[in-house]
1,2-phenylacetyl-CoA epoxidase subunit A
Amino acid sequence: EDPALLEAFEARVAADEFIEPKDWMPEAYRRTLVRQISQHAHSEIVGMLPEGNWLTRAPSLRRKAVLLAKVQDEGGHGLYLYCAAETLGTSREQMIEALHSGKAKYSTIFNYPTLTWADIGAIGWLVDGAAIMNQVPLQRTSYGPYARAMVRVCKEESFHQRQGYEIMIAMANGTPEQKAMAQDALNRWWWPSLMMFGPSDENSPNTAQSMRWRIKRDTNDELRQKFVDITVPQAEFLGLTVPDPDLVWNEAKGGYDFGEVDWEEFYAVVRGEGPAAKERMEARRKAWDDGAWVREAALAHEAKRAARAAA
Ligand code: ACO
């Protein structure tokens, strides 16, 4: 790579300029972005499945309409993100193939099952809350199309977070059985939510370079800490207990000290051994196969249109 081009690129990144699709960029920067953006897109799409599980069983028409809108938003986020990745020279087919063959990752969080309606509350509150914590800084990521996609995504994620927290408020102030369901959902979703931020900084192979390129604006541990600090008072407001005996306010650092994530579980889920991993991938592959006729019809339509235009 031409050192002068590299130097100019690094100066632009250091000046907080956006890098755009036709600009020169180092190959490793391009590869990192394709990896992160495509994995992010896959997470949005696979993330529709655990909540989709409750669409037919939402407890009222209002809850059903809200959940349906939310799940559709996630599909939209996936599509923006695939488009952002495509500006880097990869194709939708390549990305989907990488997901279906197990080469590309998607967030560990979507490999856990949604057992009760309270899980839908906990997902909106905790999972979308963690997503916002991670994605608000990405509005200032150095790659323009990714940063711009994050603006709308974050607005919609805040709505998702509120719909989840509203469900939690209703459950936590409901019957003793409902409150117990809310507590059980918190117990099961707390630690997997902390895992969404990725390995600890010392074990994160990509963080240092991604911070230098300003692809990431905060480290995994910084975001995890912020998430804990914001979320614990929300649990207190609900009258629920965060399932961490080591959680304690640390006045000196102005934040909570908290227990260690079970990293063995994290890496097992990353390897594809999560409780619902097989089911998720089967659902995605089936959707792709079942949708083949739509793709074929769209291509045939486009070919006819082009032939008519040429005639
Ligand atoms: N689930 C699955 N894989 C993970 C997770 C996780 N929670 N955390 C880290 N990993 C993977 C990384 O993708 C990386 O693997 P790879 O090199 O094969 O890609 C490996 O573990 C090491 O992690 P890091 O060095 O920390 O990787 P990275 O710098 O990419 O940081 C992070 C991971 C924080 C997830 C980053 O990619 C990111 O911010 N992505 C954008 C946000 C996103 O994808 N959110 C998805 C969930 S939110 C939602 O969709 C609603």
Notes: The mean pLDDT is 97. The first strand starts at residue 248 and ends at 250. The pocket of acetyl coenzyme *A is lined by residues 35-36, 39-40, 43-44, 47, 105, 107-108, 131, 134, 195-199, 204-207, 210, 216, 220, 270 (CB under 6 Å).
